[in-house]
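Hi support team,

I submitted a single chain yesterday and got back a structure, but I'm not sure I'm reading the token output correctly. Could someone confirm the output below corresponds to the sequence I sent? I've pasted both exactly as they appear in my results page.

Thanks,
R.
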Amino acid sequence: MAATILVVDDDDPVRVMLARLLRTQGHDVRQASNAADARAILEDSRPDLVISDIVMPGESGIELRRGILDRWPGLPVILISGYSAEGPAEFAARTPDTIFVQKPFAADQFLALVQQTLAGAGSPS
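Hi R., thanks for writing in. Yes, this is the structure output for that exact sequence:
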């Protein structure tokens, strides 16, 4: 199932790699290098899924997630980080439609998670 996905990461190579990976599955991918740019894209056209790094200059991915939850409840978000998993995993566990993935991750497992998340989006919880 092809979807529109917003990838938010301040690390250009990581963001571009994720976008390429998702495009191999037929997804339309938008990219933002920070939370402010992500919000502008979200206001313009709501994607089916947001994938965001947690540690970014300015607003973090967790702060972005909180804003998305307030403005667009039900929009699924996958948070990714190479740093300590304990806090983000805990946040994701108690936040609706939020999944945490620790970097590094295997491409095939990540794509399977994206498909599973998209398949569950919009279905009654």
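A quick pointer for reading it: The beta strands are 4-8, 28-32, 49-53, 77-81, 98-102. Let us know if anything else looks off.

Best,
Support desk
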